[in-house]
Structure prediction request, 272 residues.
Amino acid sequence: MDQVLTQSSGQPAGDPLAQRPSREELQAELLAVPEAPDAPPVPDPPGVEQVLEAALRYVRGRRGADLLAVLLVGSGARRAWTAHSDVDLIALVKGKGEGDEIVRVSNRQVEIRYREYKGVEQDLALVPRLPPLLRKARVLFELEGAGSKLTDKANQRFKNGPPAIGMHEKIRLKAECFHRLGKIEDLSQQPATAEYLLGLFLEALVDDFFRLRGFWPTAPADTLRFIASRDAALADLIEQFLAAPTMPERLGIGRNLALHLFHDIPHPQRVD
Prediction:
């Protein structure tokens, strides 16, 4: 018989294609790729825990029964210590708490801010820098869960997003920004004063960026990197501003910064 024998698949017997596994057979051989394990927490540098214990003893000795909680914030709470990182503590108290002090423990500078618990709780809805700061705070001491409750509220407030601002507020921010530049130009013959005001101008402009774009403020060490990820041109202008060798050059770049940030916001209404 000269008829060519075929397999049930329709391929001639001995055809290499007939020996290949089907798509379903290949899929059946695949193994699920396991999820990457979470990275272990970065350990604190040697001696930091002893510094925290000593600082906590100091704060508890100062406030006694008035103390509700002690929170570690900043680079310490983020496990981003460096050799020169300060220890930033917020001591939450029942009574009047406004006041700051700086002490030294071993080779670390410890900044302690005393704040009234109820006041901080109320300010969570009003002060943009509080939710990002407190949501990752590390509770070193608390009574009846006061510190944990506050960080939970800060985390919830953070998830809800920063408060939106209307056009009238945006116009006000623009007017204030250009007013600052005008005052600096008026004081250009007083270099020390003008340089100081230029520094305040940049701080205010960065705050305006976060408010206008609807972002929570970041830690100072991450600010420029964050801005670059959202607006590379603005970040480039900020770098030029910081690197400019003379005050007139910084003033010119400052005007470009303001024009870039507020380009789509109208000027205040004229009534004359």
Remarks:
- Residues 94 and 118 are 8 Å apart (CA to CA).
